[in-house]
Specification:
Blueprint: H1 5-20, H2 28-32, H3 38-41, H4 49-57, H5 85-92, E1 100-104, E2 110-112, H6 114-119, E3 123-130, E4 136-145, H7 146-153, E5 161-169, E6 175-181, H8 182-185, E7 191-196, E8 199-200, E9 210-212, E10 225-231
Parallel strand pairs: 1-10
Antiparallel strand pairs: 1-2, 3-4, 4-7, 5-6, 5-10, 7-8, 7-9
The structure holds ligand MTE and molybdenum atom.
Molybdenum atom binds next to loops.
């Protein structure tokens, strides 16, 4: 498959940045956002959700791999077993009582059971996960395309970010959370994944539901999802920088 030049360049940059271990150095975001559609996105505050979605659908896809490339076990990282009582109770009940709340700047706030999510059209993709710590892993993910779910709840035009609220807390009490802009949220490979390598998502990898944003680094891919909140700003959430690791100095834009 031939990929468009800007995506090849992005991959090359990602590879060389990983190789030199300089991912957290300045300039990454400027380089990786220099795709051809960028001038349009600079005016993104004025765009309707329909326009965001249309533009996102034309964007480069992250590389997809073959079944032969899948790693025997997908290496877990960060939280691998949330100890929060509420989560443990849900896990003990095989997540039958779990619900994904979707609220904020949406027309129809809704709560989705796992069963309801599994009944929606799904997408399966084999992709490579890159963690800032310097490792990669290839796995097959199945889930609901986030853009489809957002279309169901009707995102208001003033929404600019999706915030992903997770079940796990870190020592000190802060909950893991993340956020994406609408461009990444509507990207065709951005999934709410409930299966890994054809089996229900293991707890270590984020059961019952985790984000896959395949053009982003691993820390963006929130596990143990409990709630999606559509917002026009994340300044009032957590430490105000758009994510648990961002509040501790990681870059909000983690495109690769
Ligand atoms: N809720 C939650 N999501 C999370 C993390 C976490 O600790 N908690 N770690 C992040 C990091 S740094 C990585 S690399 C990936 C790891 O996903 P995996 O456990 O499936 O490898 O999850 C990301 N999402
Ligand atoms: Mo990571």
């Amino acid at each position: 498959m031939t990929r468009p030049p800007d995506e090849r360049r992005r991959r090359f940059l990602a590879g060389s940045l990983l190789a030199t271990g300089s991912l957290l150095l300045g300039g990454c975001d400027r380089l990786s956002r220099s795709g051809t559609l960028q001038p349009l996105f600079d005016a993104s505050e004025a765009l309707t959700q329909r326009a965001h979605r249309l533009l996102a659908s034309r964007e480069a896809l992250a590389r997809e791999y073959t079944p032969a490339d899948i790693a025997p076990t997908f290496r877990p990282n960060g939280t691998t077993f949330p100890r929060e009582r509420a989560y443990m109770r849900l896990a003990a009940g095989h997540f039958r009582a779990w619900r994904l709340e979707v609220d904020g700047l949406v027309e129809r706030p809704q709560a989705f059971s796992l069963e309801a999510l599994r009944a929606l059209p799904s997408r399966t993709q084999i992709t490579r996960h890159d963690c800032v710590e310097g490792w990669s892993c290839i796995g097959q993910w199945t889930g609901v395309v986030l853009g489809d779910l957002l279309a169901r709840v009707g995102v208001k035009d003033e929404a600019r970010f999706v915030v992903f609220h997770c079940a796990d807390r870190f020592p000190g009490g802060d909950r893991y959370y993340e956020s994406l802009d609408m461009r990444e949220a509507y990207h065709p490979q951005t999934l709410l994944a409930y299966a890994l390598n054809g089996a229900p998502l293991p707890i270590a990898n984020g059961a019952p539901l985790r984000l896959r944003a395949e053009r982003q680094l691993g820390y963006k891919m929130a596990k143990y999802l409990m709630r999606l909140e559509l917002v026009d700003s994340f300044a009032h959430i957590g430490g105000g920088r758009g994510g648990f690791w961002e509040d501790r100095g990681y870059r909000w834009w983690a495109g690769i």
